[in-house]
Design goal:
Number of domains: 1
Strand content: 15-25%
Helix content: 25-40%
Structural class: alpha+beta
Order of helices and strands: HEHHEHHEEE
Largest sheet: 5 strands, antiparallel
Radius of gyration: 13 Å
Shape: globular
């Protein structure tokens, strides 16, 4: 499956990075629950379910983003169809609003 297809088929929008999400009124509780209930998933499952367009820079591809990370990139799903990618101690969170 090509990258453009992931954008067309993706369903869950980018909510934000963990540091920004945690600063919202219910963000810390949301983040704690998300982390307590996380389940590791494949990159393929992650990409099949999320909309990357608001996470990536305008001309950036997923492959470029992933290769630019200095640390390991891991993929998770949590309660209520929350998906996130974790790298370098940060979570990039996807959730329907």
């Amino acid at each position: 499956m090509r990258f453009k297809q992931y954008l067309n088929e993706a369903k869950i929008p980018f909510l934000g990075t963990c540091d920004r999400v945690r600063r919202t009124s219910q963000g810390e509780n949301f983040w704690q629950e998300m982390m307590e209930n996380k389940k590791k998933i494949s990159e393929r499952e992650f990409l099949k379910n999320v909309d990357l367009k608001n996470m990536l820079d305008e001309d950036e591809t997923w492959k470029e983003w992933k290769e630019s990370q200095a640390d390991k990139v891991e993929y998770f799903k949590s309660l209520n169809n929350v998906y996130f990618v974790q790298t370098a101690g940060f979570e990039f969170i996807f959730k329907k609003k």
